[in-house]
Amino acid sequence: MKIIVTGSLGNISQPLTEILVKQGHAVTVVSSDPKKEVAIENLGAIPAIGSISDVKFLTNTFKDADAVYAMIPLSFTEPDLSVYLRRMAQNYAQALKEAKTKRIVLMSGWAADLVKGENVEHLFDELDASITIMRPGSFYTNFYQSIDLIKGKGFIGKFLTLRYSGLWALLTGKTGLLMGNYGGDDRIVFVSPKDIADAVAEELLLLPEGKTIRYVGSEEMTCNEAAKIIGSAVGKPWLKWVLLSDKEMLQGLKMAKLPEKLAETLVEMQAVMHSGKTLENFHRSQPKMGKVKLADFAKEFAAVCHQK
Q1: 2-137+193-216 and 140-188+219-307: identical CATH topology
Q2: CATH of 140-188+219-307 given 3.40.228.10, 3.90.25.10, 3.40.1570.10, 3.40.570.10
Q3: CB of 262 within 8 A of CB of 79?
Q4: Is-contact 149 176, C-beta < 8 A?
Q5: DSSP states of 26-69 as a string?
Q6: pLDDT tens per residue, the chain (308 residues)?
Q7: Domain boundaries of the chain, sorted by first residue
């Protein structure tokens, strides 16, 4: 099969590319970074260098493809996240329609249908194609963005946001705390990008009728249980995940100088996770959990952390 993978060599796209190439498919990887061209070729894939904001580029890249994996990278430079997501989704939808792509796997998030303005899945409904929406839980790899703070480096009364597919957290490395307007004993489904890649690879080879939705997770636990696993791996077993109010969270994001509309969207995302609605939807779909446990990831995290 001829398969297009967007997302460059990201946490999902790289292992996905490796899986598909190993299976013998002709894989093209879309990246906006020319410096990734050699690395993509070294994986046995074909690089397509360009931007997903360029509909003509996307259309030409998708032409004659048997399947496309489409993802929209989140941006913290956009003042309005919902407008940005809608614009990028419309670019994809137009290109996929013009290229007459018949199999599409679209990356979304497990809170996407619960947050006003974030859900752009409906923009693909009019396509004459088989579409699967992937709704993964909170990524393990978000913890990588917290390394310096967990180690207590560079924290002087500031907040740092962690992001991806519904996980938004605040950490203070000075006190060894995870913070957000979800946390504490809230139960969350965490997921390894490797398990997501496995699930996407499976879906790309299928051709269900119409639109289907697949939730993906690796392990369910409370936020404090997750914090303890990560903390113990780096020698801070006391690490806690403190639950903030929506108001406190919003104030923290504004301190981080995020645009107001973006900050409000992030708070809403966390609020639905705290409410338990995301977990209810996940359980309702009865998905098969992945293989990678947080404790396995924590070992990798600790190795990277100790190198810093």
Answers
A1: no
A2: 3.90.25.10
A3: yes
A4: no
A5: EEEEEES-GGGHHHHHHTT-EEEE--TT-HHHHHHHHTT-SEEE
A6: 999 999 999 999 999 999 999 999 999 999 999 999 999 999 999 999 999 999 999 999 999 999 999 999 988 778 888 899 999 999 999 999 999 999 999 999 999 999 877 789 999 999 999 999 999 999 999 888 667 666 654 322 233 343 333 333 333 333 445 678 998 999 999 999 999 999 999 999 999 999 999 999 999 999 999 989 998 998 888 888 888 899 988 888 888 788 888 889 889 989 999 999 999 999 999 999 999 999 999 999 999 988 86
A7: 2-137+193-216, 140-188+219-307
Q: Helix (H, G, I), strand (E, B), or coil: what is residue 244?
A: coil
Q: What is the CATH number of domain 2-137+193-216?
A: 3.40.50.720
